[in-house]
Design a protein that fits this description.
This protein has 211 residues and is of the alpha/beta class. It has 5 helices and 6 strands. α2 packs parallel to α3 and α3 runs parallel beside α4. The two termini are 31 Å apart.
């Protein structure tokens, strides 16, 4: 969904939706967004980081070592690993209100080191593994500051989006989720989380993904 569609949703929401500019690769925009949200509310009960990148106009997932490119590595890590950490840095005070609060970041099954059987996809795999470590580390700090806060990674499944489009030919039809199906499943998983889940990663069915 482009920004134009979000603006239209905001107009149609009758004040229930506010669009705030945020670019996870630009810390200044994250800080401004947190300040803007803080002007509207002193607490957040749910914050989901959905930014992620697998490929772009000039790069794609690497099939072998010869395809590894430093510029692509930096771009992928900047979005997939640095982004969630910077969002946590600037928004976590809004989750420290003493009641249940969830900070979730969209992760990926390929970020599991123990589940890596095919190799390849160096930047994406490594950036998601780094993101999962960040999730764990943030969860430890927040557990001290806000014992009711829950910090998790969520694997949304293979969803019919631009990110997965080049690779959908290998996905059975019954395993390709619509955006609505994935979002509904993830929200259901989030609703069932307890503090025992903090620091862990779950798929859209609620099954834990091993590190």
């Amino acid at each position: 969904m482009g920004s134009e569609a979000l603006v239209e949703l905001e107009k149609a929401s009758r004040g229930r939706l506010a669009v705030v500019e945020l670019d996870v690769t630009d810390e200044a925009t994250i800080e401004r967004a947190a300040e803007r949200v803080g002007e509207e509310t002193r607490r957040l009960d749910l914050l989901i980081n959905v930014a992620g990148v697998l490929h772009g106009p000039s790069f794609g997932p690497e099939k072998k070592l010869a395809h590894v490119d430093p510029d692509a590595l930096r771009r992928v890590f900047e979005v997939n690993a640095f982004g969630p950490l910077l969002v946590a840095k600037h928004f976590h005070h809004l989750l420290r209100h003493g009641e249940r609060a969830v900070f979730a970041s969209l992760s990926a099954r390929v970020g599991s080191i123990s589940d890596n059987r095919l190799g390849g996809w160096y930047a994406y795999r490594a950036s998601k593994a780094a993101q999962n470590m960040i999730t764990k580390t943030v969860s430890i700090e927040l557990s001290r500051l806000a014992p009711q806060a829950i910090v998790v990674g969520l694997h949304p499944g293979t969803v019919d989006t631009d990110l997965s489009q080049p690779f959908q030919r290998n996905v059975p039809d019954d395993q390709l989720l619509t955006t609505q199906e994935s979002a509904a499943s993830l929200l259901s998983v989030i609703d069932g989380l307890t503090t025992a889940a903090t620091g862990r990663v779950f798929d859209f069915r609620g099954k834990e993904i091993p590190p």
